[in-house]
Specification:
356 residues, Lambda_DNA-bd_dom_sf, four-stranded parallel beta sheet, Rossmann fold, 2 domains, 12 strands, transcription, globular, LacI/GalR-like_sensor
Length: 356
């Protein structure tokens, strides 16, 4: 089988990309039977991590690493596949490194850069707010992909993403135009300085511009320790909101969380979109095939993956200085969002009564 990616192996074994990565890296945190199954599949498929794993033993290795934080967000697996493909074209090995929520991605980056003699790095996900002095310890070029920080402008980072503030504003504005005034949001932990903060700020600004009071009760923040932007976090945060908050629309800042939210609403006897509209962010395939299909902001994954790789390889080859590339997201209207069920009731008391 030619050119199998880590995603193909994961699909074949019915596991996540991070589990395959653990098996390949001999990580202790994996079920032995699962590990055996994965390694057997890899052997049968003649899968070699991108080019040749033997390259990694040589000192002139041409390898980059992709550090993924928030593996529960399946949006990243599409990005990783795109990056792997671009690496193959350039005859580079691509090492996938899963970073746990409580781990510091920069410490891990500094360690594996030396250990594997890497030429470059891509950071995916995480609350990227590291001191400048520490960032300067990285001796290889790196690109932040689908990561933006609110203080990015004055730092010379190479970054590729959508404008999270603007796209989040766009989604909130769309829900307001449908007639919703009580819009709940599921977002990153409070201390997040990255896309979570920007998406929350976009939501707040849209409410302000349309004269809708902002209420902290309608904001559900992820726990800093949990897997971010995952199905489980969406489910958990929505259950917390339902305890004492009324809303007619729920905006989850990732599609995985939107699907988790739909499950929590269904269990509470609330129909989507009949009694509550749900919107996501990312544009994953899963959201398109979920019932109801999820209204979302689609990120141009393939363009982002290609631009990330091109920028990194140009920096490795000394042709390019760090710069920031911003792509346009697309609002995709699907089945999960409609005008509020009872507009009269909503306008009189700002909320809607639902069966509990």
């Amino acid at each position: 089988m030619g050119n199998m990616t880590i995603k193909d192996i994961a699909k074949k074994c019915g596991v996540g990309v991070s589990t395959v990565s653990r098996a390949m890296n001999n990580h202790p945190d994996i079920n032995p039977e699962t590990k055996e199954k994965i390694l057997k599949t890899i052997a049968q498929s003649n899968y070699v991590p991108n080019n040749s794993a033997r390259n990694l033993k040589r000192t002139d290795t041409k390898a980059i690493a992709v550090l993924v934080k928030g593996i529960g967000n399946t949006f990243f697996s599409d990005l990783v596949s795109g990056l792997e493909r671009e690496c193959q074209h350039m005859n580079y090995s691509c090492i996938l490194q899963h970073v746990e929520e409580q781990e510091d991605e920069l410490d891990i980056a500094l360690h594996i850069t030396k250990e594997k003699k890497l030429r470059g790095l891509v950071f995916l996900g995480g609350n990227f707010s590291h001191p400048k002095e520490k960032m300067e310890q990285l001796e290889v070029p790196y690109v932040l992909s689908t990561i933006r920080t609110s203080d990015m402008e004055d730092k010379k980072y190479a970054a590729v993403s959508v404008d999270d503030f603007k796209e989040s504003y766009k989604m909130t504005e769309y829900l307001i135009h449908l007639g919703h005034k009580k819009i709940a949001i599921l977002t990153a932990p409070k201390e997040d300085k990255s896309i979570g903060k920007l998406r929350l700020l976009g939501y707040q600004k849209a409410l302000r511009d349309y004269g809708i009071p902002y209420s902290e009760k309608l904001v559900s923040y992820m726990d800093a320790e949990e897997d971010r932007y995952s199905f489980r976090s969406g489910y958990k945060l929505t259950r917390q909101l339902l305890m004492d908050t009324e809303f007619t629309a729920l905006y989850a800042t990732s599609d995985t969380m939107a699907i988790g939210a739909c499950r929590a609403l269904k269990e509470a006897g609330i129909s989507v979109p009949g009694q509550c509209s749900v919107a996501g962010f990312d544009g994953m395939d899963t959201g398109e095939f979920y019932i109801p299909s999820i209204t979302t902001i689609r990120q141009p994954v393939e363009q982002i993956a290609k631009a990330t790789a091109d920028l990194l390889f140009d920096m490795i080859n000394g042709k390019e200085k760090p710069r920031q590339l911003i792509f346009e997201g697309e609002l995709v209207e699907r089945e999960s969002t409609i005008p509020p069920a009872d507009k009269e009731k909503q306008s009189s008391n700002g909320t809607m009564k639902r069966e509990k």
